């Protein structure tokens, strides 16, 4: 089954300095029927104005991944990490038994747009940890490039404490990618830019998402070009 969630179906929050779109129940948006897709718990699309951000706040028992699409995101946490994340870099923070962190836009002139995803960990009680890596953005061209994974891969990816793999792709016009999935797993697709067609019928436009179950082969194509994320997830 391919279930499409149009961009406009997301909950929108506007705090002036922060504009957010929530794909799952989060903060002031509560929906008991939209809590999880496998271990994927949060998928937020945030725009933070220059000089603003999220002050120090705690997390526990969650794997948190941030993907910057535009601008820069400053990170600081209670384990001593102080970094800036840019497009072409991936950040993973394991909250484990407890961590405090802040996320700020260090620019005084440019907004930052980033995706933040939360996953339930495969095990609780982990020691809090942080990892950030740059990758070659050219390898996304007409390819599914793994950037986060709980598996041992040949590629140099950010490790996560969950049986999942996150891919990024920039698909040129009139190109197709095939993704094969195990029968008992889920696939999540999110279109960052452009338009995709999945298995010849499901059309996803900019910022649309698809939650896919019980399908073992996906043909992903685009007529105009598209940038997208694909996540291979356990079903529970």
Summary?
By secondary structure, this protein is an all-beta fold. The protein has strands at about 1-5, 10-15, 20, 40-50, 55-60, 65-70, 75, 80-85, 90-95, 100-105, 110-120, 130-135, 145-150, 160, 165-170, 175-180, 185-195, 195-200, 200-205, 210, 215-220, 225-235. The chain is built from no helices and 22 strands.
Structural class call reads mainly beta
Largest sheet, described in full? 7 strands, mixed
As residue ranges, the low-confidence spans are: none
Number of strands: 22
Per DSSP, the total helix count is: 0
Termini separation: 17 Å
Radius of gyration: 17 Å
> Considering DSSP H and I runs of 4 or more, what fraction of the residues is helical?
under 10%
Shape: globular
Mean pLDDT: 96
Give, in order, the helices and strands.
EEEEEEEEEEEEEEEEEEEEEE
Strand order of the largest sheet: 1-20-17-22-15-13-14
Q: Strand percentage, roughly?
A: over 45%
Keywords for this entry:
236 residues; mainly beta; seven-stranded mixed β-sheet; seven-stranded antiparallel β-sheet
